[in-house]
Amino acid sequence: GQNIDQPTEMTATEGAIVQINCTYQTSGFNGLFWYQQHAGEAPTFLSYNVLDGLEEKGRFSSFLSRSKGYSYLLLKELQMKDSASYLCAVSPLSGGYNKLIFGAGTRLAVHP
Amino acid sequence: GAGVSQSPRYKVAKRGQDVALRCDPISGHVSLFWYQQALGQGPEFLTYFQNEAQLDKSGLPSDRFFAERPEGSVSTLKIQRTQQEDSAVYLCASSPSPGVGNIQYFGAGTRLSVL
User: Fold this and answer.
1) Do B101 and A91 touch (CB under 8 A)?
2) Is B4 in contact with A98 (Cβ distance < 8 A)?
3) Chain A, chain B: beta-carbon pairs less than 8 Å apart
4) Where are the alpha helices (DSSP H) in A1-112?
5) Residues of chain A with a CB closer than 8 angstroms to some CB in chain B
6) Residue pair B88/B41 in contact by the 8 Å Cβ criterion
7) How far apart are CA A43 and CA A36, in angstroms?
8) Dist CA B17 CA A19 (whole Å)
9) What is the pLDDT of residue B1?
10) pLDDT per residue over A27-49, tens digit each?
11) Which of A41, A94, A98 sits opposite B104 (nearest CB)?
12) Contact B45 A87 (CB under 8 A)
């Protein structure tokens, strides 16, 4: 079976740091993606991890541990515009194309 | 620089009505995906096209759902005899090539409400 878990909701203060965790169990693994989705809008790509370790991209970083089936997204210097849903998605083994299995998403609310 | 375009943005249908949802992917993108997103949930995979070939339709919930991409560009998702449980946002995504690790670029979706 395939299972992806992430917290439903989180709150944080403007200027702070927040870590959104994701655990997964999938049939095969070809990488993990994080997407951001503002209400009523398209999901937009944030990061991709296929090897263990930390990938840093500006204010956003993503970490992967394949042996633990675990990833996190780290958001620094939070801004009000970071209030959105954050979707963890795994690319399972699927015949060589990049099908995605998504978690339910974590709704982040950033307060002044 | 056009992204993925979906139309209509909103669709209200009466139960039993047929609907057709359109997706214009990014020009030249080989891969095209359809997802269904229920309120408060993540997108769920419906079907995958590589050019005009439908290689995976394992996520289509019933035989009332049908998708096509006849010329390898624009795609249409058709739902026949709509039911209330079909109410959701239908997202389309395209990717430059099929290889794993390729980013999927999403449209804003069509919000379908079945009354």
Assistant:
1) yes
2) no
3) 74
4) none
5) 4, 30-31, 33, 35, 40-45, 48, 50, 87, 89, 91, 94-105
6) no
7) 5
8) 44
9) 55
10) 788 899 999 999 999 999 999 99
11) A98
12) no
Partner-chain contact A98 B91, CB within 8 Å:
no
Ordered mean pLDDT values, 10 residues apiece, chain B (115 residues): 91 98 96 96 96 95 97 97 98 91 94 97
- Cβ neighbours of residue A41 closer than 8 Å, sequence gap 6 or more: B108
**Binary contact (B42, A45; C-beta < 8 A):** no
Residue reference for tokens 């930390």: A54
pLDDT digits (tens, 9 = 90+) for A58-98: 999 999 999 999 999 999 999 999 999 999 999 987 777 88
User: Which chain A residue is nearest to residue B97, measuring alpha carbons?
Assistant: A97
Q: What CA–CA distance (Å, rounded) separates A91 from B10?
A: 29
Phi, psi (deg, nearest 5) at residue A2: -125, 130
Give the integer Cα–Cα distance in Å for B33 and B49. Answer: 6
The rounded distance, in Å, linking the Cα atoms of B49 and B67 is 9
B96, with CB counted inside 10 A (0-12, 13-18, 19+), is middle
- pLDDT-based confidence at A1, cuts 50/70/90? low
Question: Distances in Å between the alpha carbon of A20 and those of A78, A100, B37, B91?
Answer: 13, 19, 21, 24
Q: Cα–Cα distance between B82 and A109 in angstroms, integer? A: 35
Phi, psi for B85 (deg, rounded to 5)? -70, -10
